[in-house]
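User: Quick sanity check before I run a bigger batch. Here is a single chain. Can you write out its predicted 3D structure?
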Amino acid sequence: MHILMLSWEFPPKIVGGIARHVYDLSKALTKNGEEVTVITCGVQGVPDFEVVNGANVYRVVMNNPSTPDFLTWVLQLNLNMIEKANELSRKGVKFDMIHAHDWLAAFAGKNLKHAWRLPLISTIHATEYGRNNGLHNELQRYISNVEWWLGYESWRVICCSNYMREELGRVFQIPDDKIRIIPNGVYPEEFSQTNISPAEVRQNYCSLDEKMIFYVGRIVREKGLGVLLDAFSRVLAVDSKIKLVIAGRGPYLEELKFRAYQLGIFNRIYFTGYIDDNTRNALYQGADVTVFPSTYEPFGIVALEGMAAKTLVVASDTGGMSEIIRHGQNGLKAYANNPVSLADNLLWALQNPKHAEQMRKQALLDVKNIYNWEKIAMDTSSVYEELLAEYEDSKWRSVIHEEEFRNALMSDMIKTIEVEEMTRYRDLH
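Assistant: Done. Predicted structure follows.
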């Protein structure tokens, strides 16, 4: 079947985890025999169309008038997505269903669903309510309303964990039988390969007698980095020969640096900013432990990345990470938003290398056996097939047959009239 995917980000445009998810999912689905077309935001210097791992990727050019705010930009992006989708339809490209990723593609998904009378499926990766621990202003309430609307318009909603299923039911009242849980995954080989020596990269941050804790991700409040700094100050009180490397960008960065100054630990922390994949992999492999102290995490794909890179993961016992990490078996879990618990787990991981090695090995096995994209693609295709069978039997689908019949009948009538008129004209002249 032919799937139209709508996503506001796709590599090389990477803002959060959606870009990587859509990239890997489209790759796995095409490998599984599905036909996938992705419509996403254009990126300067990147082709408007290319085939990426078997998927047709169309990047719409954002040549609209400059926008006063992000919401207006999102609406313009959706209009451009709709325009591109209709252009493909006019050229004879046929789709079996539409798959929208998060609220930023909701408007295009809903429009095409009703214009083409095709089923809409959505993946809701996170909620505005969860990201902000509630809704505190009009912008957040608006985004949350759009998320609810996307769930309402979708024939099926995919989420990545039991935690997210509960949240979608609680926040949006989405019926449980409408939700399908399919976890995220990683390709382990993408995190084990690097053309940079991990030992050499490590030496840029640590001396030979120091240990290294590594964090990578967006620098935003819900990632729990303030908790990490408080925990790290406690770790240094026990063992001063440790460095913390924080990689990533985000609006919380300057406040985080100031907090490190206040705690007197700034000289023990490296804020790297953006790093490329090779450097990330080298840091994963060179670190003694990776840490993900999120206060809100629907899934926690970064935990899988660390596991795939054979690095011991210490994560918050919250959200989807609670389901990924089995404490003491494939990683360690600290109480969420608790610097004392996080510090205790970091120290234990650093002081018990033999057990840490056992957990690293088990973590890699879990990634290969549970969170592999071949299995995820098969599960996703099963949801598509389930939905398509339901669609074919629906009254909503039967309307298309009636419209096609009426259009065909009208076309035949017009052709008959044209033939009669031409014959009459020929007889008269």
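The chain is about 50% helix and 15% strand.

User: Great, the batch can go ahead then.
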